[in-house]
Amino acid sequence: MLLVNPKATTTTQRTRDVLINALSATMKLTIEETGYRGHATQLSREAHASGYDVVAVLGGDGTINEVVNGLLDPVDGKGGDQGTAADRPALLAIPGGSANVFARALGLPNSSVEAVGEILEAIRDGRRRTVGLGQAVWGDQSRYFTFCSGLGYDAEVIRAVEGMRGTGRKATPARYVNTALHHYLSTDKRRPAMTVEGPDVPRTGGIFMAVVSNTSPWTYVGPRPVSPTPWASFETGLDLLGLQRLGLPAMLHLMPQIIGDRETLPTGRHLVQLHDEKEFTLSAERPVAFQLDGDYLGEVEQITFRSIPAALQVLV
Q1: Do 289 and 155 touch, CB atoms closer than 8 A?
Q2: What are the tens digits of pLDDT across the range 96-124?
């Protein structure tokens, strides 16, 4: 089953037609267009129940996230254990959004057209890889994520950009950067709200912003990766970078350390860092903005993150 988001940022009808024709020549294909938020989750659940071998997604990270949640929770969507990766359809990610972090983390080019050749080879050769996922649990809600989650400043930026998209403007990399710079002036830099702790994580407070990673990079600015947690991978547990300072000197010290291809952890006394953790909880003294795979999900006061190893097969 191929799920197509007709509103994906970087694809046109002509591009979609070319991709569909190429895929149709190599496999028996059912095509479904997503029409509203959550529709991809519903369609991927139906694909799972109907016995499809592969669910392909032409869209951005938000659409891919919806599909992943449908594949892992094919019955009730409540985060229960629904078998192993081998019991689920494999996922084929075709980049169609503005950042395409998940597809690029798997090694695909950012352009859907450029990715076609590699995608067809993966299908022809049956090249599959099993990846781990993250899971966020807050209140009575649960949701899986493929590459990152965040609380605080980065989620505030995503909230602002989503507001702009609601008025018809596209979510380009330049818009994210400009919004981040503008929003930095107004975000709270004096009263940290968050504390992190877990079964194997000592309690640490005074956190303004937290980035939770299932892989690296965290995002891209155009062609350049941004890697605050460079050791994160699909084969390990979750990583975290917490910022205990948001002032200009601290940010000017941090930014050069996380932009570009990096293998070393950023340094600084104001940083809280975790690597390869199975579980930890972030608590806040007041509601803080929350995003997951680049999708703003509201404000929360407590959220638990868990690593779900070997959760999903992907064609790469």
Answers
A1: yes
A2: 888 899 999 999 999 888 888 888 999 88
